[in-house]
């Protein structure tokens, strides 16, 4: 049996569910004494936040024209700097931080020192 429901009633139902989720999550976090219970409250709050986002998405889409820049978010990539060889003192930013050791090489040297049987001496 299909029950007809208007668009306004559906929006009110979505808003009520999101508000109930926020309220339940806040109460659970407020009375919890363990971190597991607080995590459950956080899940409730996260679900309610997602519900509010779904509710507000049509408005946000029409107001900020999200179709224009949302597809470009999937194309974001991290590109390494040219000339970054991983050596100490070498940087890809034109020598702005000359003499500052590369953090990756610092971590690599520290790990080498911590390996069992490593007899490397401290380099000054």
Automatic annotation (TrEMBL):
<dbReference type="InterPro" id="IPR027837">
    <property type="entry name" value="Kinocilin"/>
</dbReference>
<feature type="compositionally biased region" description="Polar residues">
    <location>
        <begin position="100"/>
        <end position="109"/>
    </location>
</feature>
<dbReference type="GO" id="GO:0043025">
    <property type="term" value="C:neuronal cell body"/>
</dbReference>
<dbReference type="GO" id="GO:0060091">
    <property type="term" value="C:kinocilium"/>
</dbReference>
<dbReference type="GO" id="GO:0016324">
    <property type="term" value="C:apical plasma membrane"/>
</dbReference>
<protein>
    <submittedName>
        <fullName>Kinocilin</fullName>
    </submittedName>
</protein>
<feature type="compositionally biased region" description="Basic and acidic residues">
    <location>
        <begin position="110"/>
        <end position="124"/>
    </location>
</feature>
<feature type="transmembrane region" description="Helical">
    <location>
        <begin position="12"/>
        <end position="31"/>
    </location>
</feature>
<feature type="transmembrane region" description="Helical">
    <location>
        <begin position="37"/>
        <end position="60"/>
    </location>
</feature>
<keyword id="KW-0472">Membrane</keyword>
<dbReference type="Pfam" id="PF15033">
    <property type="entry name" value="Kinocilin"/>
</dbReference>
<dbReference type="GO" id="GO:0036064">
    <property type="term" value="C:ciliary basal body"/>
</dbReference>
<dbReference type="GO" id="GO:0032437">
    <property type="term" value="C:cuticular plate"/>
</dbReference>
<feature type="region of interest" description="Disordered">
    <location>
        <begin position="77"/>
        <end position="124"/>
    </location>
</feature>
<keyword id="KW-0812">Transmembrane</keyword>
<keyword id="KW-1133">Transmembrane helix</keyword>
């Amino acid at each position: 049996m299909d029950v007809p429901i208007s668009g306004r009633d559906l929006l009110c139902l979505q808003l009520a569910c999101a508000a109930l989720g926020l309220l339940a999550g806040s109460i659970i976090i407020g009375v919890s004494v363990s971190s597991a219970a607080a995590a459950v409250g956080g899940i409730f709050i996260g679900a309610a936040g997602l519900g509010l986002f779904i509710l507000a998405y049509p408005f946000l889409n029409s107001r900020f024209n999200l179709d224009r820049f949302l597809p470009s978010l999937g194309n974001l990539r991290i590109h390494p700097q040219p000339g970054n060889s991983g050596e100490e003192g070498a940087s890809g930013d034109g020598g702005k931080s000359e003499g500052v050791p590369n953090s990756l090489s610092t971590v690599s040297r520290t790990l080498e020192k911590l390996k069992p049987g490593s007899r490397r001496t401290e380099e000054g």
